[in-house]
Specification:
Blueprint (H helix, E strand, L loop, with lengths): L8 H37 L9 H19 L5 H13 L9 H4 L2 H12 L12 H52 L2 H16 L9 H6 L9 H20 L5 H8 L1 H4 L3 H10 L3 H5 L4 H18 L9 H12 L12 H5 L2 H37 L9
Helix pairs in contact: 1-5, 1-6, 1-12, 2-3, 6-17, 14-15, 14-17
Subcellular location: Membrane
Keywords: Ion channel, Ion transport, Membrane, Potassium, Transmembrane, Transmembrane helix, Transport
InterPro entries: 2pore_dom_K_chnl (IPR003280), K_chnl_dom (IPR013099)
Length: 391
């Protein structure tokens, strides 16, 4: 029988790594392509729109001119009244009047807008103005938000696995340190001797002889002879079959008859990886205090770097901005002067949103456990007590 040539181990390992990474790479690549296509679409639609001077804009300029003339004619006028008039006038102004579409809706500006759409941050300082731009924005968000959540869930599994393994290794190390402190020299030596003796004993599964089986059946003498003989012969047959029949290797049988059956299709592995999305987050069980500490350190690192190119921010303002971004609140009260630099932080934003998502999931689980305890406690209190009647 001819043997089929097997591929080298290095190639097999690389293929396994490729098919393991393939689903995650597909999700991230599809999100990047989706963001770039959206940036091209919105930069073309919103960036090339015609700027028309509306009647409201003309009225705004006329009122502003009247206020400035009034201030120059009467210098002794109350400043508070002038400030109130200016504030009321600018509240009626549309921010679109002061925006150059080509600058705001450049490729990087449009890419930043797309990221704020499918991450559900929505700062509010950049938004579509044209009617077709608004319709396309709704359609873009309709498909982009589920894709973003799928990427977050998939990468969250990786992050949850890393956090779980790190936490378990830390607990093992902590238990070893505590055990070494509590263990004295004499007791440790005795325990080590006992372990070495136990490990030195090798158990071999040899075929039982008839005499050994008869010796082990000392408890059967009290039973009827008929049942003793039946059990004795059943055990003899079972031990004989166990030691005489070789175990069949189904994979070897498949390989010898048809080698293609022994090879697992890589497509099935990829499908299994798709089916396992979100399972690691469900199994994660780490203290919520640890997750809060991780979020604080993670945001603090970005808050220390961000003021280097955003000069209008200090550490506290940058910390507030990163928290509002990662929690997808996005008030828009803190604006970025260089949003294209912040796009390089896109990976940071995705990982940060995953960390916050995991923390929210852990907090949700803790709240559910708390509610269950409270409800069960209230139910036990309201249960009528059983009356014991005398006999």
């Amino acid at each position: 029988m001819e043997k089929t040539s097997q591929p080298p181990r290095g190639k097999t390992t690389s293929k396994k790594i490729f098919w393991a990474v393939f689903p995650h790479a597909c999700f991230i690549l599809s999100l990047v392509i989706y963001a770039f296509l959206g940036a091209l679409m919105f930069s073309h639609i919103e960036g090339t729109r015609e700027v028309t001077v509306s009647e409201e804009y003309r009225t705004f300029l006329q009122n502003l001119t009247d206020l400035t003339r009034k201030l120059s004619d009467n210098v002794t006028e109350n400043d508070k009244v002038f400030k109130d008039d200016i504030r009321e006038l600018f509240n009626t102004a549309d921010p679109v009047w002061f925006i150059n579409p080509e600058e705001r809706w450049s490729f990087f500006g449009s890419l930043f807008f797309c990221c704020t759409v499918f991450t559900t941050v929505g700062y509010g300082n950049t938004y579509p103005v044209t009617r077709i731009g608004k319709y396309l924005c709704m359609l873009y968000a309709l498909f982009g938000i589920p894709l973003m959540f799928l990427v977050l869930t998939d990468m969250g599994d990786i992050l949850a696995t890393v956090l779980s393994k790190s936490y378990n290794e830390f607990r093992k190390l902590q238990s070893k340190v505590l055990a070494s402190k509590l263990c004295s020299g004499s007791t440790c030596s005795k325990r080590n001797e006992l372990k070495s003796r136990a490990q030195s004993k090798i158990v071999t599964n040899e075929p039982l002889t008839i005499m050994e089986v008869l010796r082990s059946q000392s408890g059967m003498k009290q039973r009827p002879v008929k049942y003793c003989n039946v059990e004795l012969f059943e055990k003899l047959i079972a031990s004989e079959n166990k030691n005489t029949q070789p175990a069949r290797n189904k994979s070897m049988e498949r390989w010898s008859s048809c080698p293609e059956l022994a090879r697992e299709k890589p497509v099935s592995r990829v499908i299994e990886n798709f089916d396992k999305i979100g399972k690691e987050i469900e199994k994660l069980d780490v203290p919520i205090v640890l997750m809060v500490l991780v979020i604080f350190v993670y945001i603090s690192c970005a808050a220390a770097i961000l003021p280097n190119w955003e000069k209008n921010m200090d550490f506290q303002e940058a910390f507030y901005f990163c928290f509002i971004t990662l929690t997808t609140i996005g008030f828009g009260d803190t604006k970025l002067e260089h949003p294209k630099f912040f796009l390089f932080f896109s990976l940071y934003i995705m990982i940060g949103m995953e960390i916050v998502f995991i923390a929210f999931k852990l907090g949700q689980d803790r709240l559910i456990v708390l509610y269950k305890k409270v409800i069960s406690f209230c139910a036990e209190k309201n249960m009528p007590s059983k009356k014991i009647y005398p006999k």
